[in-house]
Translation initiation factor eIF2B subunit gamma
Amino acid sequence: MTSPSADATPTPDACSNVPYGSSLPSPPPVEYAAIILASTYGERLFPLTDDADATNADDDDVRQRRRRLPKHLLPLANGTVLDRLLLSLSFAGYGYIILLEISETAVDAPSQRTVAPDAPASCPMVVRTVPLSPDVTSGSADALRLLISGGHLHPKSHAMVLTGDLVVMCPGTLRAAAEAHREARMQYPCRGDVACTMLLSDVGREDEDGAPLKESAKQKKGWLSREDEEIDYTGLSSLPPSSSVATYPHSPLPHRRVLLKRPLLEVEEDIHFDGTLPKLSIPFVSALLPSSAGGGLSIRTDLHDVHVYVLSNWALGALNSYRWRHMTSLQGEYVPMLVRRQGRGVAAVVPDPKSNGDGGESMSGGGRSVDSSRVGSRDGKEEEDETAFVVSAVVVPRGLRLLMRACTVPAYLFACREVVSQTIQTPSDLLADTNLLNFPAIKSIFRPPPSSFDTAVFYIRQKDNTLIAKSANIGEKVILKSTTVGHQVKVGSHCKLNNVVVMEDVSMGDKCTIQNSVLGAGAELGDGCSLNDCAVASGVIVPARTKMKGEGVTAEMFQ
């Protein structure tokens, strides 16, 4: 299989972790670069990523214990979320990675990240760190514009854009997306090309009778659930007649064309206050649907957009043009726009290269452009333009938990539990509860990177699916299930912990019962505390016999 960065693999000493503002070498002309968006703290993980307690602390030692931690540096098993993402990209064959990191993190965060892991089968990779201030960018689209304008990405390179809170169970999934994008582009040498290939995960679940479960019911059963703002109406069809799933030998996962992408809250909004729902409208749907058998449209809400997009170089250039300068979100604005306009041709996205925008700005998009001979015009009829492009999706089948976002406290807990479980089980064990075990192509994708837990530092209780740091002090008659215990943790006697992440330096009294919760670094719990569905901020002191459920626990609550 060809590496995503096969055109040119940079050497590790070329531009690894160079601070922003210094003299940087030209970016290597790799075919596919990986861009990690890690320039936000993660408000939905409050109070784990909040710094209100730290900024109000007078004592330097207390301020250190109550440090603010961005979401991509939250602990995950024996490392951080970012550690695992970098390792996964290395295994997937990406040789050039750009890390767009929040500026305070690049200077102040107390973390050590492995840039080039010495793991078998991993490829050498160069990580260029570009610190960004939250005051400079309003969203992911703004961050990409700064990256392109700053010359950090070669004009001929395509890019896989990932969010920093992505937890990848199998690197083959990332590689499959790049392979599908590459091979789809080869199918349209004389058309408008493929603008974007996204990764979607089927997260649907059924009850004993086969009826679909609601998100609230999935959460009660301990499964991964989504909030309403994470749910989309997604319309999928077959790819155009010039291609089919069978033409993608390197992408064993299902590959479809995306014709609709609208948020559930937008679709089901009762704008007239009469109890009726608006109809779904898909531009050029009759022209875009394949005429062959099986080319119908399937509209679903059980597909999760995990914010992994493979963008062609011309689509990146269009994002940097004046026409879309008002857009701030890649997931919420730019990608849905590409979905809506694919039937109208490339001209509906890429500005005319002969015209200028505001202030005489060049419309080349930072050196990225599309051959003007391929930019056609529309005659107003609902017919697919000759330069119509494609927005496609690689779909992870139901039952395969290959990747997820740790963007909420429940999702973060679920990801920690899955990573430890994956370390204990074999790929065949993890596939046993699906109907995909007999498909060799799927089995080839499902090869997780080896989690090298240092036996001198950690040990695993396989029966209890629990990871414990050897520096932790566990009291007598303590029950631990699906729990991660960090360094220098003290757990009192007769405690019960179920589905809990205990970060470093936490101190817990006797007879505490903790369930479905995260305890931030340096937190202290008195005797007899009972916490359920809680997130305790770093450094917070919880008084003895405190009982709480569904709370974000901060120091102000006990003042």
